[in-house]
Amino acid sequence: MNMEFYRKLPIPKDVKEQFPITEELSKIREAQVAELNKVFAGESDKFILVIGPCSADREDAVLDYISRLRNVQDKVMDKIIIVPRIYTNKPRTTGEGYKGMLHQPDPNSQPDMLKGIISIRKLHLKALSETGFACADEMLYPENHRYLSDILAYCAVGARSVEDQQHRLTASGLDIPVGMKNPTSGDITVMMNSIKAAQSSHVFLYRGWEVKSAGNPYAHAILRGYVDKQGKSHPNYHYEDLYNLYETYKSSGLANPAVIVDTNHANSGKNYLEQIRIAKEILHSCRYSKDVRSIVKGLMIESYIEDGAQKICENAVYGKSVTDPCLGWKKTERLIYDMAEVL
């Protein structure tokens, strides 16, 4: 093999023992997961909002942002369930660029995955202990969630990973809701097949073990738009797209039909300000059709303290994304309150 085995990393069990979750925090997390499950099962009409930075880049700004969400959550808790995004892994189309805190806990330093593993666990633990939020992360690697599996409330499988067999089978063994994004091509049959795989039980190879998963009944769709063969972005959040997904679900036989709509990425053409309009259009579609409302369980929004994005540098603006552009805090807060008024 033409690679250097640099160092052996600690297994998840060891990291969890070094940075344990308390029984009290575990109960808080379990209660939040149960509340999310009720929404996906159609037992609750609350609306889920998976919201936060495109990628977590520094602990202080992320915790500052989430503490602001805590204040808003307390005011809209009768209608909206906020799940903060702490995305510690960032997929890169060409392999270049910032790959997230798991790789680089300091964006201005060289990759250090040992420090990264510790940093992401400490960040998720602090978010839970300081704000009472169990958060969301992306399963960029089929094993990375193991370092956080006792802390997370929600997990997403990205557009580039959703066709991968190991991601699908791993999702089938998780005990939290897992969103399966449509692939970058936009083919929703790929997404539906991934949901079916995630909802089913499997025997497969995992971390050197032969394991059997129970199947995850809360695996669901995430619509994030798509890119055509000319590289142009196209949305799939419009009423027709949502109703088509409703019809597809109806004939699929899948448990708990549900979709979270991603308001950024190809749905906005990465024009982050469009997320406000897109969110309001989706809510209008939900009011127009009870069938659409029955499957639309929430939104995914990319938001941070400051509007836009910036390049990684020594004098980076505090709370401004170093990857995709995000909606700033003032606009975010106003949007959440506007949503609560019409739900």
Task: Characterise the protein shown here.
Helix 3 runs parallel beside helix 4, helix 3 runs parallel beside helix 10 (329-342) and helix 8 (274-288) runs parallel beside helix 10 (329-342). This protein has a single domain, classed as Alpha-Beta Barrel (TIM Barrel), CATH 3.20.20.70. The protein has 343 residues and is an alpha/beta fold. The protein has helices at residues 12-18, 23-40, 59-76, 113-131, 165-171, 188-199, 239-250, 274-288, 290-295, 329-342, and strands at 47-52, 80-84, 136-138, 154-157, 178-181, 203-206, 209-212, 220-223, 226-227, 233-234, 259-262, 296-302. The chain is built from 10 helices and 12 strands. 37% of the residues lie in helices and 14% in strands. Strand 1, helix 3 (59-76) and strand 2 form a beta-alpha-beta unit. The termini are far apart. The mean pLDDT is 95. The strands form 3 sheets. An 8-stranded parallel beta sheet has the order 2-1-12-11-8-5-4-3, sandwiched between helices. It has a two-stranded antiparallel sheet with strand order 6-7.
